[in-house]
Write a structure and sequence with these properties.
Chain lengths: 326, 341
């Protein structure tokens, strides 16, 4: 591989998700004249908000090489509590209460993982079942309708921007500040890169890991609230298997499953990309049975280019450091 | 402390009985027996021959997928696509065999063609997963997550192309017998599973490939340095998992008498949960077919007892989750005890 070609392919690979996004926007734009409108763009972000919010929490967990499969159950439990027990409360009081309960859910996961040393995958798999079970018990296995004030919040716009996007923006800004500007943020990356070295450097690994799962729990609950206020009723499949699009969004945005690499901006991009595809398919009147096929192919392409980038990078670096004997 | 010292020390001061029990590889089996004994007082119906046969035939298809998953877990991989392989193979296989305009209908070979179609779907998806993981260095979790999403969708789409109904019925009688038939009172599927489990046990414990699997799972770099063809070993683990999912699909489809695109949709976490409860490690290098069998037996017995008690779905979810968690906590303590010795 010549130097120029190597650098060029690297440049393409590095920006592959962006290129993919551009191609998709152009294709859908050509196929439907309703797609490339400002209203539709707001619409896409609005619909992507709940996935993006939960995926931001998931990013923290993935950064420390953990995983949380219970976010969908947490969403449903939050929605069920909001719709069954907090009916009379105004959203401004009820939402923080539910977010705190989400934190408690995350803390249960965190306790199992850090104190009892159960693998994160199994812990959150178990709490997925338990959370859904409790939520189904609360809801009596029926649809949970939300109060008028919650729905009014879901429909409200402030300064022309839907409430879901406001919540999403606030969560994003807090997450960005925490990850980029605080000691805690740097500790998260350090633990993801090498937990043993982080512990030797004096980082309280257990405390950071505990906090990370709590953050993910709060985000999942907030995502459940946002989604609930948009869909008006939570059916018994609310949030079912949501963990998969959430993890996909984070990975699409360049967050590694092995920890230490990635960030919340990429995750938001991933969530918007997935929603763009779904929206574009609706706008172009595609066969609904095709949606999952197209979305999975696009996630696949993004991860494929990401893995190829790593391989190409390794190859390029090897060329530089090797001294050829003559 | 050398190993000789350790033996002397443990001889001098034998472990208390509860510790020995905790460390026993039959712990899950013992827990199952204890659970079963307690349940006999709560729901006496559980101890009837009919129920036991039911448990046995219910666990057969799950067991075959879990055996395939064990191979992938031993090399520190994961196969989330197994349930979607079950669904895809089910509808493709059924579309070949069905009496309603099946591709091979009336040829006299429809059952054989159908079963080959099942196996083809399983091995092709397994080959694809294996290639992505080993050739393109993609993380198994994401590769199999996308194949899961793709083929769950594809199975539904394929069904809509083939028929107006939501599933493909009218399958040949001789095929249905594989899933439902009984020989001398025992389910016919038991024979299939015994062959698969026997072969898997043989591969893992008696062949070079089996030893390579553990070596790769424990430390891929060390394995590569010692001359193990790491990529090939991982690749074939994914193919084995795909084929096992296809065999399981044959059993499930036969039991239900229809090719269904939502078949196995909800068993993903059961499969991985069963293997891990049995003692297979998610981090690779640890696992046995016998352990997986215990794990599947444990989950199936719990499912059946909750079903017999007539509990609402909410309690079933919550109880099952708590039991998985309890088993995981016991396993974590057991691991801690092992390390501290």
């Amino acid at each position: 591989m010549s130097g120029f070609r190597g650098k060029f392919s690297l440049l393409v690979l590095q920006n592959a998700p962006l290129l993919l996004f551009a191609v998709l926007v152009i294709v859908f734009g050509l196929m439907s004249d309703r797609f490339l409108t400002p209203i539709n763009f707001v619409n896409i972000v609005n619909q992507a908000s709940h996935i993006a919010i939960i995926a931001i929490g998931m990013t923290f967990v993935l950064l420390i090489a953990g995983i949380d499969l219970s976010v969908g159950a947490n969403m449903y439990l939050s929605a069920a509590i909001l719709g069954v027990f907090l009916v009379g409360m105004p959203p401004l009081v009820a939402f923080p209460v539910v977010a705190l309960l989400g934190l408690a859910f995350g803390a249960v996961n965190a306790f199992m993982i850090t104190q009892l040393r159960v693998a994160a995958f199994i812990t959150t798999l178990a709490t997925l079942f338990i959370g859904r079970g409790i939520a189904l018990y609360f809801s009596g296995n029926k649809m949970v309708p939300f109060s008028k004030s919650v729905l009014a919040f879901g429909r409200a716009t402030y300064l022309g921007v839907p409430s879901a996007i406001w919540v999403f923006a606030i969560v994003l800004i807090i997450a960005l500040v925490v990850l980029k500007l605080t000691t805690f943020g740097r500790q998260v990356y350090a633990i993801g890169a090498d937990p043993d070295a982080a512990a030797k450097a004096g980082i309280n690994v257990k405390r950071v890991v505990f906090t990370v799962y709590c953050i993910c729990g709060v985000c999942a609950a907030v995502g459940g609230l946002v989604s609930g206020s948009q869909v008006a009723v939570a059916s018994s499949t609310f949030g079912f298997q949501k963990e998969f699009p959430v993890i996909a969004a984070a990975v699409l945005g360049g967050t590694s499953l092995f920890g230490g690499r990635g960030g919340v901006l990429g995750t938001v991009f991933g969530a918007v990309l997935i929603q763009t595809v779904e929206n574009g398919l609706v706008m172009t009147n595609a066969n609904p049975y095709i949606y999952p096929l197209v979305i999975s192919v696009i996630i696949f392409i993004a991860v494929f280019t990401d893995s190829s980038r790593t391989t190409v990078l390794e190859r390029l670096e090897r060329r530089k450091i090797r001294v050829e004997p003559d | 402390m050398t190993s000789a010292d350790a033996t002397i020390a443990s001889k001098a001061r034998p472990l208390p009985a509860w510790k020995r029990l905790l460390l026993s590889e039959y712990l899950v089996l013992i827990l199952t027996v204890v659970y079963f004994a307690v349940m006999m007082f709560v729901v006496p119906e559980i101890a009837t021959a009919d129920t036991l046969l039911d448990v046995l035939s219910a666990m057969m298809p799950l067991l075959v997928v879990a055996i395939g998953q064990t191979f992938v877990l031993i090399v520190a991989g994961i196969d989330l696509s197994a349930p979607s392989i079950i669904a895809m193979a089910s509808v493709v296989g059924a579309s070949v065999m069905t009496g309603d305009a099946g591709y091979a209908n009336g040829s006299g070979l429809e059952v054989i063609a159908g079963i080959l179609a099942f196996l083809a779907v399983g091995s092709v998806i397994g080959l694809f997963n294996g290639t992505c993981v080993t050739r393109f260095n993609m993380p198994p979790f994401i590769v199999t997550l996308t194949t899961m999403m793709f083929f769950s969708g594809a199975a539904i789409w394929y069904t809509t192309v083939h028929t107006d109904a939501s599933s493909i019925g009218n399958l040949p009688r001789s095929f249905i017998e594989i899933g439902q038939g009984r020989v001398a009172g025992l389910p016919l599927s038991l024979a299939v599973v015994l062959v698969v489990a026997g072969a898997a046990h043989f591969i893992l414990s008696r062949t070079v490939y089996g030893r390579w699997l553990y070596a790769v799972g424990l430390n891929p770099k060390a394995a590569a340095v010692s001359g193990v063809p790491v990529r090939k070993v991982i690749f074939w683990a994914f193919v084995i998992s795909g084929v096992c999912a296809a065999i399981s699909s044959v059993l499930y489809t036969g039991r239900l008498e229809t090719g269904t695109p939502v078949l196995g949709q909800r068993i993903l976490l059961d499969v991985i949960g069963a293997a891990v409860i049995g003692g297979v490690s998610l981090f690779g290098g640890k696992g046995k077919i016998l352990w997986t069998i215990f794990g599947v037996l444990f989950l199936t017995v719990i499912d059946k007892s909750l079903q017999l008690m007539g509990l609402p779905i909410a309690s079933v979810f919550a109880i099952k989750g708590s039991i998985i968690l309890a088993a995981a906590i016991i396993d974590a303590q057991r691991h801690r005890l092992l390390v501290s010795r």
